[in-house]
Each structure stands twice: as structure tokens, then as C-alpha cells.
Write a structure and sequence with these properties.
The complex is a heterodimer of chains A (376) and B (416).
Chain A: H1 8-35, H2 40-49, H3 71-91, H4 99-103, H5 109-116, E1 126-130, E2 146-150, E3 153-163, E4 169-178, E5 181-188, E6 194-198, E7 210-221, H6 227-266, E8 268-269, E9 272-273, H7 278-306, H8 312-337, H9 339-342, H10 348-361, H11 365-374
Parallel strand pairs in A: 1-4
Antiparallel strand pairs in A: 2-3, 3-7, 4-5, 5-7, 6-7, 8-9
Chain B: H1 7-24, H2 28-34, H3 39-48, H4 91-105, H5 107-114, H6 117-126, H7 129-137, E1 151-154, E2 170-174, E3 177-188, E4 195-201, E5 211-217, E6 223-228, E7 239-250, E8 254-255, H8 263-300, E9 302-303, E10 306-307, H9 312-340, H10 346-371, H11 382-389, H12 399-411
Parallel strand pairs in B: 1-4
Antiparallel strand pairs in B: 2-3, 3-7, 4-5, 5-8, 6-7, 9-10
Helix pairs in contact in B: 1-4, 4-5, 4-8, 4-9, 6-8, 8-9, 8-10, 8-11, 9-10, 10-11, 10-12
Classes of the chains: A alpha+beta (376), B alpha+beta (416).
Chain lengths: 376, 416
């Protein structure tokens, strides 16, 4: 039965996250952006007080997730945090975008336990997803990064960028190419063969995005050495990464819309609030339609994932759509703010930059459309 | 959250889908060229139980579809007044799902099938039992040409389009009667309808507060069907002028009550909250048909020896169309779902309608771009989809009017 209302549990997640987003993330977002650093205190709060990492780690591995389908809740969480600050939302400790490989992907229970256990502790630690590449984006067939057998183990060679939380991660889930297909591997950060360069990105500046270069780095293959299973796992990682980014983007689009509306109600020109001008009103109506469309597409993809159905096309479409909705909404929010939109005193210019950066971390909207198009 | 239709709605959807594919689509070109109402298809639809005279939203209408149990009499919508159907609780969503399929088959024929709902919806919402009886009794059986009976709603006038508050048709009290004078334009089913809902003002100085809707039955002296329009698209749906020339209507046939206040105009607004998502759904059906056409075309046609569908640019454009069509569908479903839950959906209804029109117009234009000049031949239906979609950004409130409403709901300001 179609029911587009949030369940009580989902509402609770939304309310809790919204409070944190409004009272904490929004307040700190400007400074975090300027300093290109997420304040330790907010990371601790997200990690300890809100148990953001624990919520997606199964109880068996020390987390707080009982194993019931929670993809819609995760989408709501990211959308709501993204509404506060997408950069800080991404900076939160935990396995982040790498979680699906460790939690529901290919890792064996022993591997998952070993890698995930530290995230359930109070000390903030990170893992990162090293998936997209500079030239290939999210197009697996064009990947340069390779995985090779070496003795009884594996090594990884190549460069991944951008990687969220690149420098603070204690390890990476890497998708690389072996001669017979893709492999998903775990690479520990603490080795000389892993070089990290922090990036200077246009937006999401609190998210610690950077380049990670693997120079024959020692790697641990996640799960069994089965090319087909690894390709599936890689695809699933990309699906979840796209869904996550889409949720953040939907949050950014809504933030831009709401802020533009408030501004247009109070900004008076020609003797009346500018929201009374059709030129402004029409922009806002268009922003509202896309923001709502993005939100619903994200929830739709998440609910398919929760039902255990294939959601590749749905996630790809939601990603492409939400990224573009965020890009349009933030551009227009700056436009509606006029000169005020151009100064850092107001949040909209940051969101405009964040929206652009969001289009990088799980591949571009164009990559997603290629995925969706190939599934026709 | 749940985006899945339950089995009952899915059943109705596939029945309407089959009807659209096997009955409507094959006749789409013929009725487009003839520019005539598809009476035979309307009869078949009625036999299947797809009521052509029920309201589009609210109780009845497409919610009246009873699979395999059509009474075969056709057009009998009196029962729509008291739905016993469990589908009635999801009538708006069901209507949206069905309207998308009809729009996919042929938006003109689809509109001929459901256009009576434009009149039935305000009757369901505003009329008293006696008025409902008069309106729906006049829709029983066939008319003098053996055609199923249909209904029309007359709001628009030559000089009153988007600005519905400016209608000039007057209703002047004269004993137990009102005498109506004026011209209605662009009226769906206006030439052939058996029951009419005509909007007029009982107090031209009172603006919206003076608006009242009257039920008028075909044959009433002074109710004169005018010329049928020759149109760009939706040519299977009849659009005509209706003249009111000293047309005497009993005061009991005035909906919304005789006293002052805003009953009349608020009745009109309530009507749009139900019908806009459905009009959006039909637009969506056209967009999807253009998209399906393009996918099919690109699978069959090659460029430089390679199927078009394998071209990266083509793929990207098709996927973009698909994702925007998805977004529009969720907006339509959301607005309809809210209407079923009797939650205020003014903003969502306008978003659904405006967005579906934009997305589907783009889909038609993009499909033409992608498929190339050969696909524009009238041998194919793509050029028809392109003509049909335009009106969906115009009638039932233009895209600009919808955006004004959306913005008003967002900001509380009235944009000029």
C-alpha cells in the first residue's frame, strides 16, 4: 500500500537529526568551511552522543543495529544532516561510505568484526571508500587502479580521488582491477606505500577530501577470491554511495530552498518583499518541485534497497537527479539573495560550492546516467 | 514509507494498461486525424466498467472501475454517488495511476474517457443529493445519436482564462429561476454533453464571492452548444464553445448555496486539488510514451553501424528523461495520496501538475532530437505526442499559474 508518510521510527530519526543539524552543524558550518576542518567537538558529539557510526554497525560487531532493513532511515539521516552541512555530515566518524562493503557486502564476518569493532568504541575513527578515480569517475571499465596477487596476499597500485576523510581514515575499502575483473580490498592506512594528499576542493571543505595513492600497498582481499562476487560487491558499493550522496544532495537542495524563501519574505525592494515578484516566485516554485522530486526519488531508491530489491537504476537516477536539483537550487538561492548571496556571511554560497563537490564523490551525475542508460 | 501499489491497485493498473495498449493506442492516429470523439472506445471502456462519467477524483470516477463486472450499460454513473468500492479510499491515487496509462495510450482519447470527470468532480464535492440525482440521471443510457452520455464543466470564457475570478457570465434571479447569459470557451465535451456544470456570477461586483455553479441539462432552452475548436493536439477530445442565451435554470440547481460568502469559488478551488494531480498523471503518460518511443527507436536504429541505444550521449539523454519522469511520477502520487488522506494538497497538486507538464514536454522534444527527422513522420505517433503534450502546460491552470500557487504556499506572499 502506498504510504508516503514517515513511520514513527523514521520521524524520530528525522527529529533527532534535524535538531543536531540545526543547532550544531549549521552553527559550525561556516567556520568549518573556512578552516577546512571539522571541529573535534562536533565529531565527538556525532560519534558518541548520536551514535552515528554505531547505528549502522550490527550488534554482533559491537554496534547498535539490530539487522532490520534501515536504508530508508539512513537516507533520512543523511538528508537531514546534509540539510545542516553536507561537509560535516560526511566528516562524521565511522565506516561512512565504505560501510556497505563491510556490513552487507563481501567481507567475511571475521573481517567485518576486525575492521568494524573500533567504530563501536567512543574514540572517533574513520574508514574511507576509495572508489572513484580522476579520469574514470565511477566508470569501472575505465579504472586504472589495479589489484594483484602477491605471495599469499594482494597488493594495490594506483590513485583514487576524491576520497572522503582521506587522511583521517585508518583504512580504505578499495575497488581495483585484477586481470579477471574487479576486486574489493581493505588497505590499512599505516604503511609507507599509502600516500595521502589532502585536497583543496571548491566545497565540502570539512569532509577531508583528498587523493590516496597506493604504491603496491599491502591489501587484504575482502571475502573469497571470486571475480563475480567482487563485481557484485563493487556495484553495490557504488549503488549505496550514490544513494548516500543523493540523500545529502536532497538535503542541500531543501536547505537552499527554505533559506531563499525566508530571505525573499524579508528582503524588500521596490516597496515590497521580493517574494512578491513573479520573477523570484517562479524560481522558488521550480526549486520546490525539484527538491521534492529529489527527496521522493531518494526514499524510493532506499525503500527498494530495504526490500532487498535491485536498486541500481533507481539509485543512479536518484543520484543524477538530486545532484542536479541541488546544483540548480543552490545557484538560484544565491541569485535570489543577490549581493548577499555572494558573501560568506550568508550560507547559500557555501551550499552552491558544496553541491558542486557532491557531484564528485560518487562519480558525476553523467556517470550515473550512463549506468541508468546501460540498464535500459 | 511505501512506494508499492497494493495488489488491488496493481490489478486495476494492468487492466487500464491493457486497455490503453490494445484498444486506445491502435485508434490513436485515426481519431487524431478525424478530430472526432472516440465513441466506440468510450462504449468499450464503459463495458469494461471504466466509468466515463464518474468524477475524476474523490469518490467514484476511475475508482469505480470494477474489473470483469461492468454492467455493460455504459455511462451509468449514478452509482458513483455512493461508492461501496474498497478502492474508493485510494480513489485519487487510483485515478492518477489509471490516468497515466490512458495518457500513455492516447491523451486525446484518454481525455474523452475521463473528461466528464471535470464536471462530475465539483458535483460530487458541492451538490446536494437532489442535484446529484438530476446531474447523474441525465447521464444514463445513450443519447440521440446512440453515443454514451457525457458531461461538461464550463468555467473558461473568451476573456477569462487563468483569471477565473473575472468571469462575466451572469446569473440574474427571476422568481424561482436564475437567468444565465454569457459565453463559455474551450469547454471539454461542450458540444455533445448531456449534463453541464456552468459557472456564473450572481453579483458581478462581488468578485469571487459572487460565483456559483449551476447544473444544466442538455435541451434546456438557451443552453446552446457552439462551434467545435480545430486544435493542435488532443484532437479526439471535443472542445467547444457553449452559449448561454437567457437560459433559465431553477434555483434548486445552483450549487454552493444561495447565500453570500465564498462557497462558490472555494468549490472551484477544491475541485482543482483533486483534478490537478490527475491532469499531471495524464501528462506523465504522454511523456512516458515519448520516452518509450525513443527507447524502442534507438534499439532498432543504427548510427555508424552501431545501435543508437549504445551511443553514450543518447544513453545519457534517455536516462535523464527517465529520471525526470520518475521524479514527476512521485510528485503526482504524493499529491493524489494526500488527496486520498484528505490532507491539504494545494501546493503538491500544483507541483504535480506543473512538473509533469514540464518533464513530459521535455521528453517529447528530446525524443524528437534523439530519434531524428525520420521519426517525425506522421507514420509514427511521436509527432502526435509532441502536439498533445502542449495543452497540459496550459489547461487546468497554466504552468505559470501553478508556480504562483506553489510560491504563495511556500512564502505566504501573493506574487504579482
Amino acid at each position: 500500500m502506498v504510504d508516503l508518510a514517515l513511520s514513527d521510527d523514521e520521524k524520530l530519526v528525522q527529529e533527532t537529526m534535524a535538531r543536531f543539524a540545526r543547532d550544531e552543524l549549521r552553527t559550525l558550518a561556516t567556520d568549518a568551511d573556512r578552516l577546512e576542518k571539522a571541529p573535534d567537538e562536533i565529531l565527538r558529539k556525532g560519534h558518541v552522543d548520536l551514535a552515528l557510526a554505531a547505528m549502522s554497525i550490527p550488534e554482533a560487531f559491537g554496534g547498535a543495529w539490530d539487522g532490520s532493513p534501515h536504508q530508508v532511515q539512513l537516507a533520512i539521516r543523511l538528508e537531514t544532516l546534509g540539510n545542516g552541512c553536507a561537509g560535516l555530515a560526511l566528516a562524521m566518524p565511522g565506516p561512512g561510505l565504505a560501510a556497505p562493503a563491510l556490513v552487507k557486502g563481501i567481507a567475511t564476518d571475521d573481517q567485518a568484526k576486525k575492521i568494524l569493532a573500533p567504530f563501536a568504541e567512543d574514540k572517533p575513527v574513520w574508514a574511507a571508500l576509495a572508489l572513484v578515480e580522476a579520469d574514470a569517475g565511477a566508470d569501472f571499465s575505465a579504472f586504472d587502479c589495479v589489484a594483484e596477487k602477491s605471495g599469499s596476499g594482494w597488493i594495490v597500485r594506483g590513485r583514487k580521488t576524491p576520497v572522503v576523510n582521506a587522511a583521517r581514515a585508518q583504512g580504505y575499502v578499495v575497488v581495483a582491477k585484477a586481470p579477471d575483473g574487479l576486486r574489493v580490498l581493505w588497505v590499512a592506512r599505516e604503511q609507507a606505500a599509502v600516500k595521502v594528499k589532502e585536497g583543496k576542493y571548491v566545497g565540502l571543505r570539512a569532509a577531508g577530501m583528498g587523493d590516496v595513492t597506493f604504491e603496491n600497498a599491502v591489501a587484504e582481499l575482502l571475502g573469497a577470491d571470486d571475480a563475480k562476487a567482487h563485481e557484485q560487491a563493487a556495484k553495490l558499493l557504488l549503488d549505496y554511495a550514490r544513494l548516500s550522496v543523493a540523500a545529502l544532495a536532497a538535503g542541500v537542495a531543501k536547505a537552499a530552498l527554505d533559506t531563499a524563501i525566508e530571505f525573499s519574505k524579508t528582503r524588500v525592494q521596490f516597496g515590497e518583499p521580493i517574494g512578491q515578484k513573479q520573477g523570484i516566485a517562479f524560481l522558488e516554485a521550480d526549486m520546490a518541485m525539484e527538491a521534492e522530486g529529489a527527496r521522493l526519488m531518494v526514499y524510493r531508491a532506499a525503500s527498494l534497497a530495504a526490500a532487498g530489491k535491485n536498486f541500481s537504476a533507481s539509485a543512479a537516477r536518484a543520484h543524477a537527479y538530486a545532484c542536479q536539483a541541488a546544483a540548480h537550487a543552490t545557484l538560484d538561492a544565491v541569485q535570489i539573495h543577490g549581493g548577499y548571496g555572494f558573501i560568506r556571511e550568508y550560507p547559500v554560497e557555501k551550499w552552491m560550492r558544496d553541491a558542486k563537490a557532491l557531484c564528485l564523490i560518487a562519480g558525476s551525475p553523467g556517470d550515473s546516467l550512463q549506468t541508468a542508460g546501460a540498464l535500459l | 514509507m511505501n512506494f508499492e501499489l497494493d495488489p488491488m491497485l496493481l490489478g486495476v493498473k494492468s487492466a487500464v494498461q491493457a486497455f490503453a495498449q490494445f484498444q486506445i493506442r491502435p485508434a490513436a492516429r485515426k481519431y487524431d486525424e478525424l478530430q472526432e470523439m472516440p465513441w466506440d472506445i468510450m462504449k468499450k471502456a464503459a463495458q469494461m466498467g471504466l466509468s466515463v462519467t464518474g468524477s475524476m477524483g474523490g469518490a467514484g470516477g476511475l475508482g469505480e472501475i470494477q474489473l470483469g463486472s461492468g454492467d455493460g450499460k455504459g455511462g451509468d454513473a449514478a452509482k458513483a454517488a455512493k461508492p461501496k468500492n474498497p478502492l474508493a479510499a485510494a480513489a485519487n491515487l487510483l485515478g492518477a495511476v489509471g490516468a497515466e496509462e490512458l495518457g500513455w495510450g492516447c491523451a486525446g482519447i484518454g481525455l474523452a474517457l475521463v473528461g466528464s470527470g471535470l464536471a462530475a468532480t465539483p458535483v460530487q464535492g458541492m451538490a446536494n443529493p437532489e442535484q446529484k440525482k438530476v446531474f447523474f440521471d441525465a447521464l444514463k443510457g445513450d443519447d440521440e445519436h446512440g453515443h454514451p452520455r457525457i458531461a461538461a464543466m464550463g468555467m473558461t470564457e473568451p476573456n477569462s482564462g487563468s483569471d477565473i475570478s473575472s468571469i462575466k457570465t451572469t446569473a440574474v434571479a427571476d422568481g424561482d429561476y436564475y437567468v444565465l447569459n454569457g459565453t463559455k470557451r474551450f469547454i471539454t465535451n461542450g458540444y455533445s454533453a448531456s449534463s453541464f456544470v456552468i459557472w456564473a456570477t450572481i453579483d458581478p461586483g462581488a468578485g469571487r464571492a459572487g460565483h456559483r455553479a449551476f447544473i444544466i441539462i442538455r435541451g434546456t432552452p438557451g443552453l446552446v452548444p457552439g462551434k467545435k475548436e480545430d486544435k493542435l493536439g488532443i484532437r479526439a477530445s471535443e472542445t467547444a464553445e457553449v452559449y448561454l442565451e437567457d437560459c433559465r435554470v431553477h434555483k434548486d440547481m445552483m450549487m454552493g448555496g444561495p447565500k453570500g460568502g465564498k462557497e462558490g469559488f472555494s468549490g472551484a478551488k477544491a475541485m482543482f486539488d483533486s483534478t490537478r494531480p490527475l491532469v499531471g498523471a495524464m501528462a506523465l503518460g504522454i511523456g512516458r510514451s515519448a520516452y518509450d518511443f525513443a527507447v524502442d527507436w534507438c534499439k532498432k536504429h543504427k548510427k555508424a553501424g552501431k545501435p543508437l541505444i549504445e551511443d553514450r550521449v543518447v544513453r545519457e539523454r534517455l536516462a535523464r528523461m527517465a529520471s525526470r519522469i520518475d521524479a514527476a511520477r512521485w510528485l503526482v502520487w504524493e499529491a493524489a495520496w494526500m488527496a486520498d488522506r484528505k490532507v491539504t494538497n494545494v501546493k503538491e497538486a500544483s507541483m504535480a501538475k506543473a512538473y509533469a507538464a514540464v518533464v513530459s514536454t521535455e521528453a517529447c522534444v528530446d525524443a524528437i532530437d534523439i530519434c531524428g527527422p525520420e521519426a517525425l513522420s506522421r507514420e509514427f505517433l511521436l509527432e502526435k505526442f509532441f502536439r498533445d503534450i502542449k495543452i497540459y502546460d496550459i489547461f487546468e491552470g497554466t504552468g505559470q499559474i501553478q508556480r504562483r500557487i506553489i510560491a504563495r504556499e511556500l512564502t505566504g506572499l501573493k506574487a504579482q
